[in-house]
Amino acid sequence: MATKVLDAFALMVFFQDESGAETVENLIQAAAQGDVDLAICLINLGEIWYSISRKVSPERADHYIQEIQSMAIEIVAPDWLLTRQAATYKARGNISYADCFAAALAKTRGGLVVTGDREFKVLEDEVKVEWLT
Predict the structure, then answer these.
(1) What DSSP string describes 15-43?
(2) Average pLDDT rounded to a whole number, residues 5-12
(3) Torsion 35-73-43-81 (CA) sign
(4) What does the alpha-carbon distance between residue 2 and residue 87 come to, in Å, rounded to a whole number?
(5) CATH of domain 3-131
(6) Residues 113 and 106: beta-carbon distance below 8 Å
(7) C-alpha span between 57 and 73 (Å, rounded)
(8) Which pLDDT belongs to residue 131?
(9) Which end of the chain has the lower number of beta carbons within 10 A, N or C?
(10) What stretch of H or E contains 113?
(11) How far apart are CA 55 and CA 90, in angstroms?
């Protein structure tokens, strides 16, 4: 079963009940039932925390991270192989370093990134993307 990698964009859409939230919710439910492998890179988890902390508060950010940790989503700490792949993508330019980690995780797992973030367009030749609409 190929891994579906959630980037920060996908989980922020879910928490803010924006367009695409239902797709993310369905993936989370499918993961809880063992029908799909979901993962997120620890770097992207940090991206979620700082975004919520800036907009709302550090306490609210902690709450969301605890909620994510309770879901059937594997949180992957980057090793050198993952970091090198992310750095390779960043060297190509036009994509944030955090997004490069989501792409690298998808690439190393033979999976795909679930996102609505158009920055991933520059990597579509190497990484499969499931676009949220």
Answers:
(1) HTT-TTHHHHHHHHHHHHTTSSEEEEEHH
(2) 97
(3) negative
(4) 23
(5) 3.40.50.1010
(6) yes
(7) 24
(8) 97
(9) C
(10) strand 112-115
(11) 26
